[in-house]
């Protein structure tokens, strides 16, 4: 299949539910789960510190430093597997990426709250390619203040690719809700461009 547009106002979303074949996605999940240097960082919410409900890692070019939710990240060097994925996604999305944030949701009790990827170093119209491996999880989108539209739910299966670009982060938030359903692990890789390198993201 190919990346096809999703109809959402003030957003530019493209989706391919089968970007990677099932066998390749399963092999990548096993490889990356084993070789990535995972961390569980602590965040402060409402004056209290708590561990993030997922494992995370940040890889990229040497100058692709990133800060979100008060956490500063220094990139680890690309592994061969991550570099190959970067090149493949750049070709598929006509975008440039110099970094990737990896989130490992160990089961349904791990999740991600509502947020937008709108940090200054991502620029005003970032292109973010989100590759999912492992268990299917429900991805939610809701409009930010000033935009009236029903929320959107999208099931992200293993091997699926979602590209968010243009005004999406300015007008929409997204989340990965926790669930009580018994689920296996899900690994999500979000490739992006962080300001600091000589070129920036471009897409047609």
TrEMBL record:
Residues covered by the Fe2OG dioxygenase domain:
96-195
PROSITE patterns in the record: FE2OG_OXY
List keywords of the entry alphabetically: Dioxygenase, Oxidoreductase
The record ties this protein, via Gene3D superfamilies, to:
Alpha-ketoglutarate-dependent dioxygenase AlkB-like
Q: Where is the signal peptide?
A: none
Q: Does the keyword Chaperone apply?
A: no
Query: What SUPFAM superfamilies has UniProt attached to this entry?
Result: Clavaminate synthase-like (SSF51197)
One molecular function GO term is:
dioxygenase activity
Which PANTHER family does the entry link to?
ALPHA-KETOGLUTARATE-DEPENDENT DIOXYGENASE ALKB HOMOLOG 3 (PTHR31212:SF4)
- What is the protein's given name? Alpha-ketoglutarate-dependent dioxygenase AlkB
- The species this protein belongs to is Hymenobacter ruricola
């Amino acid at each position: 299949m190919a990346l096809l547009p999703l109809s959402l106002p003030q957003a530019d979303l493209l989706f391919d539910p089968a970007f990677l074949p099932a066998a390749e996605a399963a092999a990548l999940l096993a490889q990356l789960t084993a070789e990535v240097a995972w961390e569980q960082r602590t965040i402060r919410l409402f004056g209290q510190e708590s561990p993030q409900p997922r494992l995370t890692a940040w890889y990229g070019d040497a100058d692709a430093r990133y800060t979100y939710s008060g956490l500063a990240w220094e990139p680890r060097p690309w592994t061969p597997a991550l570099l190959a994925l970067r090149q493949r996604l750049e070709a598929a999305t006509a975008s440039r990426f110099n970094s990737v944030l990896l989130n490992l949701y160990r089961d349904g009790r791990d999740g991600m709250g509502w947020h937008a990827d709108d940090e200054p170093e991502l620029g005003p119209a970032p292109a973010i390619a989100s590759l999912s491996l492992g268990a299917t999880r429900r991805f939610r989108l809701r409009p930010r203040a000033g935009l009236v539209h029903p929320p959107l739910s999208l099931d992200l299966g293993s091997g699926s690719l979602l590209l968010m670009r243009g005004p999406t982060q300015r007008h929409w938030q997204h989340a990965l809700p926790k669930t009580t359903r018994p689920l296996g692990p899900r690994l999500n890789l979000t490739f992006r461009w962080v300001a600091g390198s000589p070129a920036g993201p471009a897409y047609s």
